[in-house]
């Protein structure tokens, strides 16, 4: 290979790497995104990476879609106000049956369901309490998960809290945590599974006082990519509806990120929850997530008829997740999408190298034709002869011998 060809290959390799990194979408960044409506009023603030086409539901249940971006500033179009009460359970129906089925309800309340908890970003921490925003493999987020587990257990639910690490804090962390989530779903068969994070915004974005306690608010994140996007969206709205009723102001909003699935394709009740930001103190985050735990029993509703349907759908999704990452049913995982980028870039790079090394499109086509007709044919020839030999009639074989 000539020196010129080596240089061309190095340049193409560097170009492929740059293009690949540009195609990688990281969930969090050090940037705080401020979203305005079309009149210029600030309607949402998040550390989650914002893209045109993303949608969000505010604390007051107004839904918007991002229509333009300029740096960390975004403009969103108002889509309408969501009647969140439509997502509440049928309280009247429950009250009517309460007197007749009291023994059955009491029995069901002894088993309010099982929740699994894990952390994709193992390093996430809270600066005022932990002294830093990141502790490799042992972030303060685990203690927030512990507080969530304790509160759920106090509410009568079974809990499994995974301490699996998924560092470093990059986009592939979701592929590493996918194995954890799939294992939890297969082995524990939870009624719901939560990936607990913290956001990265100024402290006032998440600060709140509820029931006389200083707490952090929560943000729910729904991945719109994949076949379960609408199902997870409805589940998030149910969580917010119940939270608004029990602890108004606890959930600051729901962010609908169009570009990812965040492993929510594995289970119909899978949710990514942000508990405060790195600028908030961890005890406030622990109190906030403890209040959120109160919401779960009503949403999971083991005694309700809808739970059986959810369990059946969950089983189907679990099988899809256990069958392999990025299966047709589950949708492509992060690694599958990344592999598609790599293959595409390699094809483009090979075509560019062929053109540059020959000097013209005509010569490039001629060289490609020669390769496919001669080199590739010669490569397959021995295999073809072996196959023809195997397919010969027995009489011809004996004659040859």
TrEMBL record:
Q: Which UniProt keywords apply?
A: Membrane, Signal, Transmembrane, Transmembrane helix
Task: List the residue ranges of the region (Disordered).
Answer: 306-329, 382-401
Signal sequence interval, chain numbering: 1-27
Annotated membrane-spanning segments are 339-359
* Ranges of biased composition (kind: Low complexity): 309-329
Query: InterPro entries, alphabetically?
Result: Spore_II_P
A Pfam family it matches: SpoIIP
Instruction: State where composition is biased (Basic and acidic residues).
Output: 388-401
Query: This chain belongs to which protein, by name?
Result: Stage II sporulation protein P
What is the scientific name of the source organism?
Propionispora vibrioides
Which lineage ranks, top first, belong to the organism behind this chain? Bacteria, Bacillati, Bacillota, Negativicutes, Selenomonadales
């Amino acid at each position: 290979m000539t020196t010129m060809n080596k240089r061309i290959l190095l340049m193409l390799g560097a170009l492929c790497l740059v293009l690949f990194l540009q195609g990688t979408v990281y969930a969090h960044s050090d940037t705080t995104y401020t979203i305005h409506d079309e009149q210029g009023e600030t309607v949402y603030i998040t550390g989650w990476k914002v893209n045109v086409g993303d949608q969000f539901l505010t604390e007051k249940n107004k839904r918007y879609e991002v229509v333009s971006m300029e740096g960390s500033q975004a403009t969103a179009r108002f889509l309408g106000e969501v009647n969140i009460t439509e997502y509440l359970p049928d309280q009247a129906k429950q009250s009517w049956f309460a007197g007749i089925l009291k023994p059955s309800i009491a029995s069901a309340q002894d088993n309010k369901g099982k929740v699994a908890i894990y952390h994709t970003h193992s390093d996430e921490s809270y600066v005022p309490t932990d002294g830093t925003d990141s502790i490799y493999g042992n972030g303060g987020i685990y203690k927030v998960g512990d507080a969530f587990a304790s509160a759920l257990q106090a509410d009568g639910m079974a809990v499994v809290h995974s301490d699996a690490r998924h560092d470093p804090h990059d986009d592939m962390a979701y592929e590493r945590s996918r194995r954890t989530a799939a294992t939890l779903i297969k082995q524990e068969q939870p009624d719901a599974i939560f990936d607990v994070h913290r956001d990265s915004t100024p402290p006032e974005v998440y600060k709140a006082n509820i029931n006389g306690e200083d707490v952090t608010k929560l943000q729910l994140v729904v991945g719109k990519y994949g076949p379960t996007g609408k199902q997870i969206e409805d589940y998030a709205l149910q969580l917010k509806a119940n939270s608004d009723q029990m602890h108004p102001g606890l959930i600051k909003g729901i962010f609908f990120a169009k570009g990812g699935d965040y492993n929510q394709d594995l289970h119909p009740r899978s949710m990514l929850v942000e508990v405060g930001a790195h600028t908030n103190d961890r005890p406030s985050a622990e109190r906030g997530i403890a209040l959120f735990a109160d919401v779960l029993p009503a949403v999971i509703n083991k005694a309700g008829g809808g739970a059986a349907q959810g369990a059946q759908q969950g089983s189907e999704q679990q099988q899809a997740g256990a069958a392999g990452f990025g299966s047709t049913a589950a949708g492509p995982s992060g690694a599958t999408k990344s592999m598609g980028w790599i293959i595409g870039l390699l094809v483009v790079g090979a075509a560019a190298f062929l053109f540059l090394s020959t000097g013209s499109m005509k010569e490039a086509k001629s060289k490609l034709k020669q390769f496919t007709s001669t080199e590739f044919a010669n490569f397959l020839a021995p295999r073809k002869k072996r196959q023809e030999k195997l397919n010969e009639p027995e009489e011809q074989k004996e004659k040859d011998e």
